């Protein structure tokens, strides 16, 4: 059964053109989701000429099917990172996610992107059958992440113990990516929709990407798709 993202019902129609010629850029980015468009924005700021190649429509892949929740911990919480690495790595992950979080908030303000961005707390809790929350509370404290322990919460079902992490947020990820793309597109940041990359050829001084409607020659290539699909690589490429 095909499921349709709720964000598709609250988004705009994009009109980025399809590649119809051969072009030369500094960096080619495969994928027009939040990763690809953000990367294009940052590379453009650094003075590079970039091209984003999206097989379908900007933001309507993995980004447009995400939860719309923004938080500095990961979906499996912090204990798996601590168990595999150490508290220093946990802190680095939280810091990196916080910087990404801040960048999104800055872009929303700077470009006045109407994406229902709303700061709010995140709640993590359990019903008490395993008491895993105790470990999460301890690691969250070690990581110096602000939180408040919660003993009661007005929710249906059993509640044992939890925590509130303030200053997280929700947003419409599809509207955000579409709005960001519209604001960063120009002669130095080319964005193409319905342009599927079919083959990648690594040559001595450049990489050539064969698409369904034209070729792109670039010094560097960034693969910004969630799961690479249907791409035939002529030579192994070191990214």
Distance between the termini: 36 Å
- SS element count, helices: 5
User: Approximately how much helix is present in the residues?
Assistant: 25-40%
Cα Rg: 21 Å
- Hey, roughly how much beta strand do the residues contain? 25-35%
**How many DSSP-defined strands?**
11
Biggest sheet: strand arrangement: 7-2-1-10-9-8-11
Order of helices and strands: EHEEHHEHEEHEEEEE
Average of per-residue pLDDT values: 90
Q: Residue ranges: pLDDT <50 for 5 or more in a row?
A: 233-239
Give an overview in words:
This protein is α/β, with parallel strands linked by helices. The protein has five helices and eleven strands, in the order βαββααβαββαβββββ. The protein has helices at 34-45, 79-84, 87-110, 133-142, 173-184, and strands at residues 23-30, 50-53, 69-70, 118-126, 148-150, 161-170, 189-192, 197-202, 207-211, 215-223, 232-233. The strands form two sheets. The chain has a seven-stranded mixed sheet with strand order 7-2-1-10-9-8-11, with helices on one face. A hairpin with a 4-residue loop joins strand 8 (197-202) and strand 9. The longest helix is centred in the middle third of the chain and has 24 residues, at 87-110. It is elongated. It starts with 22 loop residues before the first strand and ends in a 6-residue tail after the last strand. Mean pLDDT is 90; it is low at 233-239.
